Amino acid sequence: MPATNETASPIVLFRDDDIVAINKPSGMLVHRGWGNDAVVALTWVRDFVEKRVYPVHRLDRGTSGVLVFALSTVAASALSEQFAAGKATKRYLALVRGVAPEHGVIDHPIPRREGGPRVSAVTEFRRVAVSGRYSLVEATPRTGRLHQVRRHLKHISHPIIGDVNYGKGEHNRLFREQHGLMRLALHAAMLELLHPTSHQPILLSAPVPRDLAEPLQSAGFRLG
After folding, report:
1. What pLDDT digit, counting tens, does each position of 142-161 carry?
2. Which of the residues 17, 37, 47, 60 is marked catalytic?
3. Is 60 among the residues known to form the active site?
4. What are phi and psi of 128, to 5 degrees?
5. Quick one: how far is CA 224 from the chain centroid?
6. CA-CA distance, 142 to 119, in Å (whole number)?
7. What is the pLDDT of residues 57-115, one digit of tens each?
8. Largest CA-CA distance found in the chain, in angstroms, rounded
9. Alpha-carbon distance 25 to 66, whole Å?
10. How far, in Å, CA of 75 to CA of 181, rounded?
11. CA dihedral angle for residue 218, residue 105, residue 62, residue 10, rounded to 10 degrees
């Protein structure tokens, strides 16, 4: 069955007294500052836990996967410092055009925010699988810049499928028409950080959602 472009509901991955982690669906904004959507991840989580929540990092609207909110200003400060210092490890799964190298490090400056100056940005990647003219890659950003994974993969001529800003329309159309891909093929699959109170490492993982898993399987990629 082809994937649809309807936005699914988040799935709660982890919750305690200090943090909540969800698997954010593609198509959902993190907060209303980026649009006028009636439901965004922040309000969904707020309503779920029935208390104020604090975003500590971001995911693009089109990107699905692990998204963490703090439940207090103290936890938010501790987590924000980890992300700012590059101490939180994020791994993304991306479907890209072409046969990507087996492994590489992209060191290419990009803006930290829209319209800002270019600053140092580093992403490590490895190829996970190949099917025809396309590859699945795992990308690990070492810095946190605007659209970093998307920009960096385009920089090495392997843009992400479904990316209307940095990708190629002909490949996006092919995957939409032949494989039912109605979204950006980028998923935040894993996040490792230190708990803001216990300071113990936490590994959060988000399964690939159906609206990405089914098109990948249709295109010849095996998951799991």
Report:
1. 998 989 999 999 999 999 99
2. 60
3. yes
4. -100, -40
5. 18
6. 13
7. 999 999 999 999 999 999 999 999 999 998 999 999 999 999 999 999 999 999 877 77
8. 49
9. 9
10. 37
11. 90
